[in-house]
Amino acid sequence: MITHMVRDNKGISLLPYFAVREHIESGELARLNVTDYHLNMYHQVFYYKDKWVTDEMLEFIRIVKAALL
Predict the structure, then answer these.
(1) Which of 5, 34, 43, 44 can bridge 10 by disulfide, Cβ–Cβ 3.0-4.6 Å?
(2) Closest CA to 2 of 41, 11, 17
(3) What is the C-alpha to C-alpha distance for residues 12 and 8, in angstroms, rounded to an integer?
């Protein structure tokens, strides 16, 4: 897991707070506030186009496409 690699000094990572809250509260990881930095992220959604897709999955894909285009 990424948090274990960070804890073991094998790098740094940008993770959502909910994923590391317990580690921060226990002192296992530290939070670093970075100011004056704009992060551009590339987003991807993968699915098998020839496999069955639920209505919920189709709606998720539609929402993601609308948000990213």
Answers:
(1) 5
(2) 11
(3) 10
pTM for the model: 0.52
For the chain, count helices (H), then strands (E): 3, 0
Q: Residues 9, 11, 37, 22: is their CA dihedral positive or negative?
A: negative
Q: How many Cβ atoms sit within 10 Å of the Cβ of residue 53?
A: 13
For every residue of 22-39, which 3-state class applies, written as one string? HHHHCCCCCCCCCCCCCC
Amino acid found at 2: I
Tens-digit pLDDT profile for residues 35-45: 898 888 777 77
